Amino acid sequence: MKISKKTIANKENTLIFLTDKNYDFSKIGLSGQEISYINKSIENKSKLIEINQYDRFVYISIIEGKGEKYQKIEKSRVAGSKIQAKINPNKIEKVEIDCSEGYSENALALAEGLALKNYKFVKYFEDIKEKTPSLKEISIISKDIIENDIIELQNIIEGVYLSRDLANEPFSGLNSVDLAREIIQAGKKSGFSVETLDKKQIQALKMGGILAVNKGSATPPTFNIMEWKPKNAKNKKPIVFVGKGLVFDAGGLSIKPTAGSMDLMKMDMHGAASVIGAMYSIAKTKLPINVITLVPSTDNLVDANSYAPGDVIKMHSGLTVEVLNTDAEGRLILADALSYAKKYKPELVIDAATLTGAAAHAIGDDGIVAMGKTDKKYFDKIKESGKNVYERIVEFPMWEEYGEMIKSDIADMKNIGGKVAGAITAGKFLERYTDYNWIHLDIAGPAILDSNKDYRTKGASGTAVRLLFNFIKEFSN
């Protein structure tokens, strides 16, 4: 997908025009009959109006005046996704987006929604060309939009596409070693550095959580360290991202049921995919913030050597864990990474993971469950970024009473709590491995979708890429 800026419209290309209901449509060269049709459609409260001029299409997107600014921007993203659904069947390859004065942000948002909806994972189809969406180029016509706005949007879209590609890739094409290779390639394309630790190095670091989960695997684990360290970095201490890189989760000996559960577990590494996509966009845009990203990666399969319920494992931090459910493995590999993050003396650590079904059950797929221990200013910033990109944050409590639920009779803690508050007890488990400002994002609800939801695509949605990018962008201001 190519996104560019233009100063003059090409009358041969499909046009998308954003404005309010009071605009004088004669200014954009429409016929009297077309203007009459538009005005009648507006009277009927249509927000998206299509005109077939035979040699091209014209789409009019009417911007509503109600709601807060971030809500109106989101409506333009959604409008872009709806237009994409009309463009693709007509095999349109190029579109131009124009707007009346004052709506340049809406034009960018519409382009964003259009581009995000235009994604499709087509790698394994026989006829890839036929399955690939037709749209290849989006041009934006606006004197108020600068070139850097276009470059930033292009980089964000590429980061989301990368995230979706990684999470949609089946386990047969992406094990922990493959993921490390993909991270190296992403670093080469965008500019961040990569160091990958192999199994011997992980053993030397005594990362017992990663090693335990990996015991049933034929593929060794990897621990991937990415860094974007620009010369003009505004922060003395790094921001650290941590992503759960579980490339396939069968549940281990606490095996999952197949239908509606295990069949989607190639995407259990969406947390890793999200932070990788964010790092790609951040580095390619050259945001002036030092960011380090950690991705522990393995699968969680069933084997005679698999770790078992009742086992006690010793973590990188030195704490011991009684394993009561081998399907609560994500917190084990994340805990080792969170413990390792201490070496960087970070200003803030943010982890992202498809960690618990409890988070999805609590708020569905319309938001991200968050919790942690941090200065209020950091939570305020992540919540504001959540509004900016419409990946809204719901903060859960971390009361000390929840910690009682993961106490073990034979070890420092157990890896699951009781029947209630599952998302929070998972967060309380992770909290034990942090001694810094920390935010935990449980993206289990919005990350993996069973159908398209506007510009959030079926399968891997790319959740948290835009959120983390926006957070770092705003952090630099």
Short description:
With 477 residues, this protein is of the alpha/beta class. 37% of the residues lie in helices and 20% in strands. The chain has two domains: 143 residues, Leucine Aminopeptidase, subunit E, domain 1; 321 residues, Aminopeptidase (3-Layer(aba) Sandwich), CATH 3.40.630.10.
Task: Give an overview of the whole structure.
The structure is a single chain. The protein has helices at residues 32-43, 69-87, 104-117, 128-131, 147-168, 176-190, 199-204, 208-214, 270-285, 330-340, 357-363, 376-389, 400-403, 422-431, 444-447, 465-475, and strands at 2-6, 14-19, 48-52, 57-62, 94-99, 137-141, 193-197, 222-228, 239-243, 245-249, 291-300, 312-314, 320-322, 348-353, 368-373, 393-395, 413-414, 438-442, 448-449, 459-460. With 477 residues, the chain is an alpha/beta fold. It has 2 domains: 2-144, Leucine Aminopeptidase, subunit E, domain 1; 155-475, Aminopeptidase. Strands 7, 8, 9, 10, 11, 14, 15, 16 and 18 form a 9-stranded mixed beta sheet that branches. The chain has a 6-stranded mixed beta sheet with strand order 1-6-5-2-4-3, with helices on both faces. Helix 2 (69-87) packs across helix 3 (104-117), helix 8 packs antiparallel against helix 10 (330-340) and helix 9 packs across helix 16. It is elongated and about 80 Å long.
